[in-house]
Amino acid sequence: MFLSQEAPATELMRLLVAVNSIGVLTSVCTFHKEFTMDTRIQFRVDEETKRLAQIMAESQGRTLSDACRELTEELAEQQRKIITHDRWLTEEVNAAFSKLESGKSKFVSHEEANLDMEARKMKIRNKAKK
Prior knowledge:
This protein is mainly α. It has helices spanning 8-19, 47-59, 64-101, 110-129; strands at 28-33, 36-42. It has four helices and two strands, in the order αββααα.
């Protein structure tokens, strides 16, 4: 799931709820959007869940809002890493196809690739035996 620029709070809330579907968090969570906290996220949990979560957060020296914010920031950072990796992978795949289309590379069938890999493994095994 990619976060769009238009509605980051709504999409991040869906992501937060999907990841934490057991309902450990409480009703309001604020997060950083370009280093300013100007967006609210709300969701509902039962009173007992909220009470227990508050006790846990307080035992760690933080508020439940702090815990929600930290989780949201962690989720956003994970998503940033996914987006960065997806961009890199897309660039690599496009570069490989461009290289193939320009005749600067050779297409290798699955069977050929397997045979080559087996030969490489055998070479490594033989070196290890010596």
